[in-house]
Amino acid sequence: MQDVSLPELDRPDATPLGLHWRNRYAALGPVFHTRLAAQALPQPHWVATSDSAARLLGWPGDWAERADWQALEVLSGGRTWPGSEPLATVYSGHQFGVWAGQLGDGRALLLGEIDTPNGPMELQLKGAGRTPYSRMGDGRAVLRSSIREFLCSEAMHFLGIPTTRALAVVGSPLPVRRETVETAAVVTRVAPSFVRFGHFEHFAHHGLPEALRTLADFVIDQHHPACREAANPYAALLETVARRTATLLADWQAVGFCHGVMNTDNLSILGLTIDYGPFGFLDGFDPGHVCNHSDHQGRYAYSRQPSVAFWNLHALAQAMLPLIAMGGEVTEATGDLALEAIEPYKHTFSEAMAARLRAKLGLAGERDEDVALADDWLQLMATERADHTITWRRLAQWSPAEPQAVRDLFLDRPAFDAWADRYARRLALDGRAEAERRLQMDRANPKYVLRNHLCENAIRAAQGGDFGETQRLLKVLERPFDEQPEHSAYAEFPPDWAQTLEVSCSS
């Protein structure tokens, strides 16, 4: 697709201090993207900003209000900063296991890449208007979904889980129709790269081997340079992605995070959590929980996420076969090498998951009985749909002398007591002080996660013009492992009405 001519942009006279644009993805060429301007939101206003994301970029604390930055106008699509080259990237992918053909940034614009104290970072506007890849869509995001993505991006970061970041949400009275008429918003996302598995699938499927190689070389050179030293750099890249994806999935499973739409175009080549739509954190522990109301077959259920990620890696491996062949013909040996490259996903995930469960249980070292102890604990939780976050957090306070805080969460007390007796014997083998064990567990088991009802409260307030709850909730989520007694209400059991909340692909 050819680039669309940019309209004349209203550029401020003063360049924001410290913004040095690289635009390396733009330099790859027009086969990778379409250059175009955003469609400005009318009457924009700030909804929320993240001080932490701004610090990541090295920006001053008053960046959002500085007259010379004109940030509100830029991040609502009304202006561009000098040096920025807005574009929408093209990719393809498998959606719900079915080849969907060409996709692309249907409502996102990459503003470009800037130098920061933490390395180059890309800035992207989500909800900035229609692009050539919108596929009958309006290219807009609504306030509801933008607040959800903003809060969860930042919450995941503070949980220590690799993720794209969210700098700000800008709102507008512009009406947007989804299931009902809502108002528009734009969320500014930040990441070292927004390249997905689907970018590779696109060029492989459309028979563009040179573009496929250019993309792979770009990713290796900019993000995984160690792969260049391998005998087969492309197989090494595939293995690196497989390992990163494995540890990411272990992170998700450990905190009870459900992504909701694990399509190949929604998995990051850097192993970041990307594209927050119908996500959810588990309330009652149900391994079969499906957070996406649009996922009628339950493909992306919580317990299936690790296997789906491996399926997606197979799709990526298939796309990379021409590269792994290193200029030769794709043969059975090429396929074997690709499969060998993604095979480490299995043991990497298993080892990472086991390590996270040991930390959550407060175990020191490794013993043969640890896997069974953890599995039986999860089964006990699943049988009674024990609240995932609260039960794990309370377990840190458990001792044979003080069992009630966690024991009271289970109706089958004998089953809990039997497991707790095994747990006590295992802890005794470590010989650690109780305080040390509890401290470790409190650093592995968050007290605060972004439950759907907390997000819904912030959304409803914002839809009524009160953005304070979004900012307050963000501050709580920035310290997920701390007690924060002044905010304990955010850590309580979800109310009954939370069970009626539904999130779908429009979320």
Task: List the main descriptive attributes of the protein structure presented here.
single chain; 507 residues; alpha+beta; 4 domains; six-stranded antiparallel β-sheet; two-stranded antiparallel ribbon; 16 helices; disordered N terminus; nucleotide-binding
Task: Set down the secondary structure blueprint.
Blueprint (H helix, E strand, L loop, with lengths): L32 E3 L9 E5 L1 H7 L13 H5 L11 E3 L2 E4 L2 E5 L5 E7 L6 E6 L14 E2 H16 L6 E13 L3 E11 L5 H9 L3 H15 L9 H23 L1 E2 L21 E2 L23 H20 L7 H11 L1 H18 L8 H14 L4 H8 L8 H4 L5 H18 L3 H11 L7 H12 L4 H10 L30
Antiparallel strand pairs: 1-3, 2-9, 4-5, 6-7, 7-10, 8-10, 9-10, 11-12
Helix pairs in contact: 3-15, 3-16, 4-5, 4-7, 6-7, 6-8, 6-9, 7-8, 9-14, 10-13, 15-16
Question: What features would you describe in this structure?
Answer:
The structure is a single chain. This protein has 507 residues and is an alpha+beta fold. The protein folds into four domains: 26-193, no CATH class; 198-352, no CATH class; 362-444, no CATH class; 452-497, no CATH class. The chain has helices at 51-57, 71-75, 143-158, 197-205, 209-223, 233-255, 305-324, 332-342, 344-361, 370-383, 388-395, 404-407, 413-430, 434-444, 452-463, 468-477; strands at 33-35, 45-49, 87-89, 92-95, 98-102, 108-114, 121-126, 141-142, 165-177, 181-191, 257-258, 280-281. The strands form four sheets. Strands 2, 6, 7, 8, 9 and 10 form a six-stranded antiparallel beta sheet that branches. Strands 1-3 form a two-stranded antiparallel sheet. A two-stranded antiparallel sheet has the order 4-5. The radius of gyration is 23 Å and the shape is globular.
